[in-house]
Write a structure and sequence with these properties.
The chain is α/β, with parallel strands linked by helices. It has 14 helices and 11 strands. Helix 8 links the parallel strand 7 and strand 8.
Length: 469
């Protein structure tokens, strides 16, 4: 099969259809993606480990299964990537660090097992911020920085940087990320793709480095909302080995995609959603609001003091720092601070400075604050915010260690709410992300809203300058 470049499918949905009509094979798709990774790795540095041999073996097996009538579903034979804090048996899981360069797990993470069972082909382990420590997306002192395919002078968002960059550049159809303070939503926003942080507990964390057990969720990144929903279908599910796993019925998160959003109420949080934004981001949000109105949605202003003047992202980030300090402390003391980058060192100091009493108080207050969140969804279907107040950072910008750049992300993580980031426009050639936030277990609804916006605009169809197509 000698497909030309123009023949290569842009989405999982396209590739799946072609696999089944015989005009594409998983082996050819996989080889195309691996060729792209080899070609663009020097520019993007999106990968820590490339699992080419495994990918080609799996692709060949998926082709044979399909020929014999065994169809595993929409992800059968699809080329994806896995963030390097997530175990893939037989391959390094470095968590972007120096100390774990040679750590090779014997078992797959639960989410990897689920994706393999769905027929996915894993191309490699993607680059990430060292131990998912933020401040500047894609920064890694041990494996090199990841660059944004929309501009090689800018960072791609973090900490799931390599997944965001590789999916945006068409090196893979989709991939996984982990998100405590915005590490799925950030790369989705800055790379112009779709990223879902699901309800806390929707996706098992077994086999994933435990950076922040109170906040962290695992979610998909893909070029379209539909593809992200297909990924989430495979990733989500109860895992008895995970104590916080939600024992809820399996769902089809694509079920409402394509339905209109007439009559849905979309909330803007007073003194929060549109507060203190860079001018291009405010303009994109205002345009998005008009698009939603044209689709029949009602825009509602809502006062939620817990967002506008009670909680703030830097204070909530102390929970992340405290738990990170607890998770890494033994290895940090064992190997010494010099084995870690400056951002990890700064996070560890902040975690050490956060007292157990203040941490326990912040966790205890969540139950009371959550009552306000429950009330907030009694009259509104979802809330709109930008993904960031300041959209892009250059590679040589100093890191923002305050947590304030995550002020639209961290509060949603604190409450465990599902959130999707999609492309809402451009500032010149750089994407602008918009976040749609739903009530607990409300993924299907926010994906419906995101898909309606995506269909009404052409933002998801644009290609970055560094692109393997």
């Amino acid at each position: 099969m000698n497909e030309s470049i123009s023949d290569w499918p842009d989405t999982i949905a396209d590739a799946a259809a072609r696999l089944r009509d015989g005009t594409l094979t998983s082996a050819a798709l996989t080889r195309h993606c691996l060729d792209g990774i080899e070609a663009l790795q020097p520019q993007l540095n999106a990968f820590i480990t490339i699992t080419g041999d495994m990918a080609e073996r799996t692709a060949a097996a998926m082709d044979e299964e399909l020929k014999s009538g065994n169809d595993r579903g929409p992800l059968h034979g699809m080329s994806i990537v896995i963030k390097d804090d997530t175990n893939v048996a037989g391959y390094p899981a470095t968590v972007g660090s120096a100390i774990y360069r040679d750590r090779i797990p014997e078992e797959d993470a639960t989410v990897v097992k689920r994706l393999k069972d769905a027929g996915a082909v894993i191309l490699g382990k993607t680059n990430m911020n060292e131990f998912a420590a933020g401040g500047r997306g894609g920064f890694n002192p041990h494996h090199g920085d990841t660059r944004n395919p929309w501009s090689l002078d800018h960072e791609p968002g973090g900490s799931s940087s390599g997944t965001g960059a590789s999916v945006a550049a068409h090196l893979a159809l989709a991939g996984t990320g982990t998100d405590a303070g915005g590490s799925v939503r950030g790369p989705a926003a800055r790379c112009g793709i779709a990223g879902i942080r699901p309800t806390f507990g929707r996706v098992s964390k077994v086999g994933i480095y435990p950076r922040c057990w109170s906040f962290e969720a695992i979610g998909p990144l893909a070029r379209t909302v539909h593809d992200a929903a297909l990924m989430l279908n495979a990733m989500a599910g109860y895992d008895p080995a995970d104590p916080i796993s939600l024992n809820t019925p399996d769902e089809d998160f694509t079920r409402d995609l394509g339905q209109d959003i007439k009559g849905l109420k979309l909330g803007l949080i007073d003194n929060f959603s549109l507060e203190d934004l860079d001018a291009p981001i405010l303009a994109a949000m205002q345009d998005a609001i008009e698009t939603f109105k044209s689709l029949g949605a009602e825009i509602v202003d809502v006062d939620i003091p817990v967002f506008s003047n009670v909680l703030d992202a830097p204070s909530l980030a102390n929970i992340i720092f405290y738990e990170f300090n607890q998770a890494l402390r033994e290895d940090y003391d064992k190997f010494g601070a010099d084995m870690f980058g400056e951002i990890v060192q700064a996070d560890m100091k902040k975690g050490l400075a956060t007292t157990k009493e203040s941490y326990d108080q912040a966790i205890a207050e969540k139950a009371e604050h959550s009552k306000d969140i429950g009330k907030a969804f009694e009259t509104v279907d979802a809330y709109l915010t930008p993904s960031f107040a300041r959209m892009h950072m250059a590679l040589d910008d100093p890191p923002d260690l305050s947590g304030n750049h995550r002020r639209f992300n961290i509060p949603m993580s604190y409450f465990g709410l599902p959130s999707v980031s999609i492309n809402a426009g451009f500032d010149g050639t750089l994407p602008i992300g918009m976040q749609i936030v739903g009530d607990r277990l409300g993924e299907a609804k926010i994906l419906r809203i995101a898909k309606a916006f995506e269909d009404a605009t052409d933002f998801a169809n644009r290609r970055p300058p560094v692109d393997w197509t």
